[in-house]
Design goal:
- InterPro entries: Smr_dom, Smr_dom_sf.
- It holds the Pfam family Smr.
- This is Smr/MutS family protein.
- The protein is an alpha+beta fold.
- It has a domain at 57-181: Ribosomal Protein S8, Chain: A, domain 1, CATH 3.30.1370.110.
- Helix content is 32%, strand content 13%.
- It has a five-stranded mixed β-sheet, sandwiched between helices.
- α3 crosses α4 (133-144).
- It is elongated, with a radius of gyration of 28 Å.
- It starts with 6 loop residues before the first helix and ends with a helix.
Length: 182
């Protein structure tokens, strides 16, 4: 393969660049300092919620599972098998829906403060009320939280379909990301 330029192309180039003088300078282009990135404001508890989902759009089946895009399959499999260490547990049995939501929000705040990666939430199976009200609500509420990466029904030894394993955002990564923005 020849790298030579055909004579016709060379003549065309010379004709087009006739009369042009090359720039002469021996200085390197000055360094331009990039502006510092603006840190994202710390979100308040209500700002942690995604507002793009309505409760009617969420189907609640016997076995629950949810994972945000980007969650590694192996990590989710470990969660489903109950192989991740449970840092905290919350039991919502017998609570009204409103009290259960407030309790869940406080629980997730505490998980964040205590740097918990995986938690168990017991919502019950709803046999007393005929339908699993808290199960349906918790399924919806957890999908709204940005700090919840994935959840699934627990194994039989940990409550089965009456409980959930919840995978929370890695607090070490969140701290490293915020430190990198400064």
């Amino acid at each position: 393969m020849s790298k030579s330029i055909p004579p016709a192309d060379r003549d065309l180039f010379r004709a087009e660049t006739e009369g042009i003088e090359p720039l002469r300078h021996d200085q390197v282009e000055p360094y331009r300092q990039r502006p510092r990135p603006r840190p994202r404001p710390r979100l308040a508890d209500d700002d942690e919620l995604l507002d793009t989902l309505s409760e009617a759009e969420v189907d609640t089946h016997e076995y629950l599972e949810f994972a945000r895009p980007g969650i590694q399959k192996r990590l989710f499999s470990d969660l489903q098998r109950g192989d991740l260490e449970i840092g905290l547990e919350l039991d919502l049995h017998g609570l009204t829906a409103e009290l259960a939501r407030e309790t869940l929000w406080a629980f997730l705040r505490e998980c964040h403060e205590r740097r918990i990666r995986c938690a168990r939430i017991i919502h019950g199976k709803g046999f007393g009320s005929g339908q699993p009200v808290l199960k349906r609500k918790v399924n919806y509420w957890l999908r709204l939280r940005r700090d919840v990466l994935a959840f699934c029904s627990a194994t039989r030894r940990d409550g089965g379909t009456g409980a959930l394993y919840v995978l929370l955002r890695n607090p070490n990564k969140a701290r490293a990301e915020r430190a990198g923005q400064r």
